[in-house]
Design brief:
Layout (H helix, E strand, L loop, with lengths): L3 E10 L9 E4 L2 E4 L2 E4 L6 E6 L8 E4 L5 E13 L5 E5 L2 E4 L3 E3 L12
């Protein structure tokens, strides 16, 4: 497993948004994003970047401290040490104070025509 240098999220919020800046966990430690632009309010788009510089055994997006957060979709881009960046897309989900969304997805296997 390669070390995760940076990951960037583009989060499209649905009908219920956040008034707070979301956080993420890596390997059980909760951290703030290093860069945040936009809004997680209803109908908003939030761009968030983390620089964990760690091996991602577990990487999650933390739910809000109060209420619920409707997410229409997330585009996650990962930059691992010594590898080309790759992107995954996640569908709709609702997070609350008891839920976290798994964000770590290893690079998809290469497709080869035979």
């Amino acid at each position: 497993m390669a070390r995760l240098e940076t990951f960037s999220l583009v989060i499209r919020t649905g009908g219920r948004g956040l008034d707070e800046t979301p956080a993420y966990t890596i390997n059980g430690f909760t951290l703030p994003f290093d860069q945040v632009d936009g809004s997680a309010r209803a109908g908003g788009v939030l761009e968030a970047t983390g620089h964990p510089q760690s091996f991602p055994h577990g990487l999650t997006l933390v739910g809000p401290s109060e209420g619920a957060w409707d997410i229409e979709g997330i585009e996650a881009t990962y930059e691992l040490d010594g590898e080309a960046p790759y992107t995954v897309r996640l569908g709709a989900v609702t997070l609350d104070g008891q839920t976290e969304l798994r964000l770590w997805y290893p690079r998809p296997a290469e497709v080869i025509d035979v």
